[in-house]
Hints:
5 helices, 2 strands, mainly alpha, single chain, two-stranded antiparallel ribbon
Amino acid sequence: MASGMTMKGGRELLNTLTRLQGPETKKVLRKVLRAGAKPVQLKAKATVPINTGALRKSIRVKAGKRTRKKEMSVWVGTGDQDNMFTGKTFYGGMVEYGTQNMAAQPFMRPAWDTTKTRTQRIIAVGLGRGVVRVARKKRGRR
């Protein structure tokens, strides 16, 4: 299940980070994106139906697949980013979407819907602080 967000002013922050470049920039982006994804993960773990607990344990924050050099993303879910019907908890997709014989018991979509605003705020604040931190480091080196 893919879902994303767009943030006003985010493009300007990302452009500033891109201009600053370097490993510090990637570190800031990775840290901020993971911090923003954490509330989604926690909410999904709190709402997932529990039988053995394996599905709850499998809900992770993972680095997203790169599509372009300047894009970075994180992914929250079970299985694989492209297919949640894989791995030991292949049934995660069946629980989320239901089957012919079982009603859906969504846990990922509601987790995103209820934490979206908080996630956006965490990312916006983190990026703003990250830009300032990286800029100060760069300025100090010159």
